[in-house]
Structures are given as structure tokens and as C-alpha cells.
Amino acid sequence: MSDLQKLAASLAGRAQSSEEVEAFVTHEKSFNVKVYSGEVESLSSAEPRGAGVRVVSGGRVGFAYTTDLGEQSLDQLVGQARDNAAHSTPDEAVALAPAWAQAPPEVTGLVDDAHARVSSDDKVSFALELERATRSLDPRIRAVEEAVYSDSDAEIGLATSTGISGLYRRTDAWCYSMAIATEGDDTEIGFEFDLARGIAALDAEAVGRAAAERALGVLGAAKIPSGRMPVVFEPYVAGQFLGVLGSALVGEAVQKGRSLLAGRLGEQIAAPGLTMVDDGRREGAPGAAPWDAEGVPTGRTEVISKGVLTSFLYDTTSARREGRGSTGNAARGSFKSAPHPSPSNLAIDSTGESRSEVLERAGRALLVEDFHGVHSGANPVTGDFSVGATGRLLEGGTPAQAVKEVTIAAPMLEILKGIEAVASDLRWLPFGGSYGGATTLVAEMTVAGS
Amino acid sequence: MLDETLIRRTLTEALARGGDLAELFVERRSSTALRLDDSRVEDVASGREAGAGVRVISGERASYAYTNLLTEQGLSEAAQAARAGLSGAEGTVAADLRRSVGPTHPVKHAPEEVGAAAKAEALSRANEAARSQGAAVRQVSASYADVQQHVLIASSDGRIAEDDRTRVRFAVQVVAARNGEIATGFEAPGHSGGFELLSVHDPADLGERAARKALRMLEARPSPAGEFPVVLAPGSGGVLIHEACGHGLEADTLVKDASVYANRNGERFGSESVTIVDDGSDQGAWGSFGVDDEGIPAQRTVLFDKGVLVGHMSDLLSAAKIGHPPTGNGRRQSYAHLPIVRMTNTYLLPGPDAPEGIFSSVERGVYAATFAGGEVNPATGNFVFGMAEAYMIENGEVTYPIKGANLIGNGPRVLEVIEAVGSDFDRKEGVCGKDGQAAPVTNGMPTVLLGKVTVGGTEA
User: Fold this and answer.
1) Is residue B425 within 8 Å of residue B448, measured between CB atoms?
2) What is the DSSP letter of B297?
3) Average pLDDT score over chain A
4) Distance CA A124, CA A36 (A)
5) Residue B375 is nearest to which of A39, A86, A373, comparing CB atoms?
6) Angle at Cα A73 formed by Cα A72 and Cα A78, nearest 5°?
7) Is there a single domain that holds both residue A28 and residue A111?
């Protein structure tokens, strides 16, 4: 047993009679380099660690965390969580995850074995190359506001007095570039990112070029007249839409009247060809793990089958409220927060067309390359969806005039019902959960421009 | 917090292979957070964190490393990691560490001396008050959070500063539903101070106000889309100034020529009535502090004076590049983050116009009572804001609520279209995100009339 797993077990072992204790502990090595104008602007490294503890007693739950892993501090930590539990309202649904019948199978591909051998110099070189690739594409790229490489190598341990004890390791590497393009009085920004388990799978050239192309593409953009028209979401944008919808698919939000999907189980809520899956074990997806943030083995849940809403997503407590089992959807930001239910890796299945087939089918449409103001303009409780957009007007499926400063709007259920095609070009967005987006055609939305 | 010998030893070790400046940031933080949902106090959480970061600046390059171990060994390891990659001659640490002090923000009722029971009781009062507003109130969540943060900043050029920051915030969110329509209402005041926040903002009153907002919005009709005059309510409309003007005047974007305001000092952007300041020294305000996270005292900085661009906000690095003294806007989320330029409390100051007269001048337009948030692209100044609570104005009168409305436009152009600035004023507290770091900020403004802006909605 590793030190981290022993630490978790020793915390869980502090449970007194008539209470259960869960300990979530992490030990991470992180690295970040940001370059600007051919030089390193900042470089940061660290090895943070910490523990978060939940105590459940008589239907009450309390949480506490600390970065001080000394013996005395650990006693205080459990005591603090116990004191906190005394102030919560008892709820018989509240419980820790039940013991594993058998250890959950491992998820392959969480670790890049080469990760630990990559030198800081190589990481710095990667970031410099990313900036160069962004800048060198076109003389109209005036600057690269940020070119960043980051990685993390983390061990995550969890133990409960109910009998769970687990540990897994994951490595993550990601990069992004932000290009600034200028032509005459017009200045535009283009953003692109990539993520993988290790640096070798990241492509600095491709990310840099894509960031530059996005910025260049919006140069000369203008408003278009207001009206209703078909809309195509780029994969990045489709992923952001799923990010909003994802919170409405959480069972707890439904139970508490905080989801536009409440009361719609079994209803046709989306186009008949549309199937949406949450899969906590999906290989290659950033949110993959053998068990969730409270130790429940992860799994696959079809939330929409052929347009029909078939299931919501649950953690242990929200599942017990409905007398059912967890779907393995507990998540947490870090050891500093108690688990809460959330999608793991959520994506719409492709309807089988390629990207170019989807564009062709769209004909004359607004191709949305970026949303603006999603966190304020999209509301998973009411279903209102009204956000700023930049992109291009498609004429006969071919990108033509660049468009900016427009808003697009439609109720979210109308968008779901209007999805006519989802291409096979899936990519994952790690935005507070992980969401898979692909080129997506929506039959009609309101575009507000001039 | 740490004795001066250890501080000096850490700084010396950080400069052992050269570098222009070494800085040590030490933080201890304790917090509590309680959340009520579905009429139950579901989350009661508390945490303790300690950490230290060492930064070595060499030319334009900043290297940073942090640790959770505030021991001689932990600090030494961080110093060694921060100097990695350097190979110059040993730098020197100033003989004397001179202490800088900033404004204080009094705490009358220290949160750690208030039991969790009183905090939980406040949540229940907000819940009951909200639910008593009518059967259409379907769900209420209320949260209470306090943070006590002690920081120490010392640097090799001989500066040392400490700051105690206590912040408390209370939030209520209400969901109302009737005949298939759903609407939400939200109130979330906060301040730099103690538990006395709840004497100024009574939890029951906050619950009632959030519920009334949600109930009013149940009657909302779809927002029209197109170009309209827009009246911004005092307080919440300040997010527009924050997003449209503030971010572009953070000096890190200016020095990278990534701001629409770069090299435009002295230019007129708005009328004589438009004066905008950032003020981290505003006593007790949510975004205030004594010294910033680089040890520079909080101050008031005028950004636009009577419509003319006159100032900007900076941290140590960007100030050095611009050649101005730093303005005390270097902030970091925690010891795990490098300081970056951030706003504090950003205010459009009151102007000459009577608020009632502003409404009566509008024939057909939109009254933006509460914004849900927004975002801006500093390089272009383009922004989008969602409206959580908005109404139509017809013939000078506020007539009916509208939903799904947002505001889209461009920062410099929006200052240009400010046609009236009210004599009233209000503040709204929020959390601003930048480079993955969160910072408490306040936005403030009076009633303001924008002549013509694009409103996005579902009715074409």
C-alpha cells in the first residue's frame, strides 16, 4: 500500500462508533510555463498535497480539509468534520458509498509512462515552439498574447470506514495559444488548445496554426441582419452547449426543481436520431477514472436514447433519494471540496456524417466558431439560451463572410429537438467536467445582428 | 508568521544563482462555508490551508515554486525550484526589510468567534422568508461563506508587508415556477469585514428580495432582438464597466499591446459625466485589502476622468515595463498562483442626471435591472452580458419583464453611447475570473442610459 493510501486509510480508521468517515487525499506534481515574444514569461512548479474528510452520522454530514498532514492536524481534521456534521440537517438519504463487491476494473490509458522523464527544458521548448507556430503563420498575427504548456502527475487516494480503499494515478498535459491578428483598424483574437496524457501526444504546430487561423478568420467580420436561420456549432462550441445541458441532466438538480428537464423522463426531448451518453470509463476522455470522487465504480449511462430522455446522473445521496443506485457521477474540484454530482464524460453519438457532409447539408447557415457569455446567457434551470457568437456565414455549405457581434438564441429544448446532424469529428473539452463536441447542425435559431 | 531570519535565508537561497528580485509570499487561510438547499442545511465545511511561494524574477522571466510545508526545508526546496534554470552570480538581499502598511478594513464580529449554529440559522431565515412569498417559489438555496486570510510578502529589495483579510458573503438563489414557466432570482452581498454583514443585509430581507425577483420574472415575455436604448440599473450595471473598460486597462494587456486602450492615454472616450475609478482602499468593500499580494498598499486609481482616459492598473512587473509606480493591483488567488493584474472595486462615479428623468427620455427600450455576468475580449473590447432581470421601457415607463435578453457590443464604443449618468449609486459584489484565478471584486455605478446598443433575444 502506498503512503497516500495508508494516509487515507488512517483517516477513515478514525471513525467512531455510529459514524462513517471518508478520506480523499491527493498528491500532485504540477508544472506550468508561459512564453511571450520568444522568451519564458513565467515558469511554475509545485508539489501540492492535501486531505478532505467527510463524517456522516445519523443522516448528517460534515466536511473539512487541510494541507497540513501532520498527525495532530489529521486528528483535528476529523474532529472538525464531525463538529460540522452536527450543524447540518439530518436526511436519511445521506450516506457514503457502499463497500465494493469487488475492486473496480482499472481504466487503461490514464498514465503516460514517459511523463516523469520529460525535462523542464523540453517543456519550455514545446511552449516556445507553440508560440512560434502561432506567430509565423501570417504577418497579420501581430502577437501571441499567451502560449502556455502545463502538466500534472497526480495520485488520488480514497478510503472509507464502509470498506473502500483505492488509489489511482493520472497524468495530464495540455497547452493553449491565443493569437492576436490585426489588419487595418480591425483586431481579433483566436484561441486553440489541446490536451492529452502526455506531452508527446500534443501537437504544438497544429495548435499554433489553428489559433492563428481562428484569429485571421474573424478579421473583417461584420454583423449580419437579424433573422431565423440554421446554425452549425463547431466541435468546441457544441462542447460548451453540452456543458450547460449537463448540469440539467444531474439528478440532484431535477429533484430540487433546478433543471429544465424535470418531469420529462420518458419524453421525446431531442431529435429522434439523437443519443447522448455519459461514460466515466471512456478511454481517451479527460474525465475517465476507475471510480468517482466518493469511490463508486464508474460506468456508462445512456441519458438520451433516440431522442427520449432515459436517465439522469446520480451520486450516492441523490440516488438514495429515489431508492436507486449511484451512476458513479460524484465529482470534486480538489481535496478542498466535498463531492457533488456532475457529468463525467458526456457526448452525443455521431449521426454518421463527416464534417463536410454536415456543412453541405446546412446550406446557408451561421457556422458558430465561438460563443461569448455562455455562463450568463445560458440557463440550465429555465432553458433560456441567448449568447454572443462569432463565426462565418455558410453559403452552400462553404464558409464565406466572417460574422461577429451577433447573438444567437433559442430555448434549449428547441435546440435539442432541432439537432439534425452530429459529425464524427468528436473532441473533448475539459470545462468543469468533460464534454465531447462535434460539428453539429441545428435546424433553426434566432440570430440578432443589425 | 515567519521569523525574519528564515525569510532572509529563503530570499538569499532563491537568489543564489542570480536574478534581479526574489520574493516570498506566505499565506495562512481558514474558511467556513455552509449551504442550505431544499430547506436542509446540506453542506457544512471548513478548511485550513498554509502555503508559501517563492518567485525569482530575472529580466522578463518569473520563476515560481510553492510548497505546503512552511518549514526551513520546505521553503528551501521551493527557493531551489524557483531558481532552477538560472546560472548567474549570487544576488543580494537588502540589509533592512522596510515595512509597508495599507488601509485597514475593520472586523467588528470575527467570523471564527461566531458558532456554526448562528450561520446555519441565518440560512434558515433566508429560506423561510423566500418561501413565504408565494406557492410559486419552488426552490431556495442559500449559502454563507467566510474567509480569514493572513499574508506576508517579503522581497529582496527590502520590502516586507503583512495583511489580514476577512471576507464574508451571503447568497440566496430562488427558483419560481408557474404554468410551465421557470424563473430565478438572486441576491449575494459581501464585504471585507466580519459577521456584521448580516446586520447590514438581513438574511430574511435578502430571501424576500430574491424571491420577488424570481416571481416578477415568471411574467417575463421573450426579449426582442435588435438595437435599442438601454437603461442600466445602479449597481449591477457596473459589471459592464468592469468588463468593457476595466480588463482593457489592466497593464499586463497594455504592455503586450493586447488591449484596445493601448497607447491611447489622453483620448476622449465618453462625455464629461463619465469618471471611472478602481479603488482597492474603499473601506470595507468586498474587493478591498490593505496591501496587495505583492505588498503594495491599496490605492484609488482614476481610469477615466470626465470621459478622458488617464490611468491604468498595474502590478510590479507591468509597472516596471510601463515606467510608472505600481498601483497596488497585483493579486493572486492563493500561494499556489503567480500575482497578476486585477481590478479591486471598480466604480463609474455618480453624475448629474436625475434617475427618473433618464427613464422618461426613453420611448422604446430595455431596462437592465440585473446582469447575470458577462465576458469581454480585451484586445477587441467586444463584450456580451446576460440579463437576469430585465424589463421593456415604453413611452418612458417600465412596462413588462422580458427574458432571454443579453447585451452585446464593444467597450470603447459603449462609453461613447453613455448619454446620461444618474446621481444615484449602488454596488454589487462578484468574483472575477482571469487566467484561471478567482478574485473578489466589486462593481459600482449609478443609473445610466446607453443610447443605442444591440440586444439579443428570441423574438427577431
Assistant:
1) no
2) B
3) 95
4) 12
5) A373
6) 105
7) yes
Q: Which of B52-56, B142-146, B218-222, B370-374 has the lowest mean pLDDT?
A: B370-374
What whole-number distance in Å separates Cα of residue A342 and Cα of residue A259?
Answer: 13
For residue B412, the number of C-alpha atoms closer than 13 Å in the C-beta half-sphere is: 17
Angstrom distance (rounded) from CA A444 to CA B83? 56
β-bridge pairing B276-279 and B300-305:
antiparallel
The yes-or-no verdict on residue A143 having pLDDT over 70 is yes
Interface of A with B in 171-190 (CB under 8 A): 180, 187-189
Is B45–A48 a contact, with Cβ atoms under 8 angstroms apart? no
Classified by CATH at the fold level, domain B4-33+42-99 comes out as: PmbA/TldD fold (3.30.2290)
- pLDDT computed for residue A316 by the predictor: 98
pLDDT for B460 beyond 60: no
- pLDDT exceeds 90 at position B304: yes
Q: Which tens digit of pLDDT belongs to each residue from A27-76?
A: 999 999 999 999 999 999 999 999 999 999 999 999 999 999 999 999 99
Report how many domains make up chain A. 2
- Final residue before a domain boundary, out of A171, A190, A218: A218
B384–A65 CB contact, under 8 Å: no
Give the domain-ending residue among A218, A245, A274. Answer: A218
Domain-by-domain residue ranges, chain B? Answer: 4-33+42-99, 111-151+163-218, 226-456
Question: What pTM was estimated for this model as a whole?
Answer: 0.92
Distances (CA, A) of B244 to B182, B249, B379: 30, 10, 11
A222 touches chain B (CB under 8 A): no
Distances (CA, A) of B408 to A36, A371, B274, B384, B396: 30, 12, 20, 4, 23
| pLDDT at residue B381 tops 80 | no
The phi and psi torsions of A120 (rounded to 5 degrees) equal -60, -40
Do residues B210 and B174 touch, judged by C-beta distance below 8 A? yes
Same domain, A293 and A167: no
Tens of pLDDT, residue by residue over A339-380, are 999 999 999 999 999 999 999 999 999 999 999 878 777 888
Q: Write the pLDDT tens digit of every residue in A380-434.
A: 888 989 888 999 999 999 999 999 889 899 999 999 999 999 999 999 998 667 9
Across the interface, which of B45, B65, B225 has its CB nearest the CB of A63?
A: B45
Cell digits of residue A32: 506550468
CB atoms inside a 10 Å sphere around CB B266? 7
Report ipTM for this prediction: 0.90
Mean pLDDT of chain B: 94
- Give the rounded percent of residues in chain B with a pLDDT score beyond 70: 99
Q: Selecting from 3.30.160.150, 3.40.50.720, 1.10.10.10, 3.40.50.10490, what CATH number does the domain B111-151+163-218 have?
A: 3.30.160.150
- Quickly count: other Cβ atoms within 10 Å of residue B123's Cβ: 26
Are residues A197 and A237 both part of a single domain? no
pLDDT score of B102 = 94
Range of the domain at A87: 3-218
- What is the three-class DSSP state of B362? coil
Residue A60: enclosing H or E segment and its boundaries? strand A60-66
Judge if A66 and A213 occupy the same domain: yes
Taking CB atoms and an 8 Å cutoff, what residues of chain B touch A220? none
How far B119 CA sits from the closest chain A CA (Å)? 9
Same domain, A71 and A176: yes
The CATH number of the domain holding residue A195 is: 3.30.2290.10
User: Same domain, yes or no, for A277 and A374?
Assistant: yes
**Residue that has been written with the C-alpha cell 546560472 in this structure:** B87
My answer on whether A348 and A370 are in the same domain is yes
The verdict on A70 and A153 lying in the same domain is: yes
Three-state secondary structure string covering B325-347: CCCCCEECCCCCCCCEECCCEEE
From residue B282, alpha-carbon distances to B23, B275, B286, B329 in Å are 27, 16, 9, 14
Which chain B residues are within 8 Å of A215, Cβ to Cβ?
Answer: none
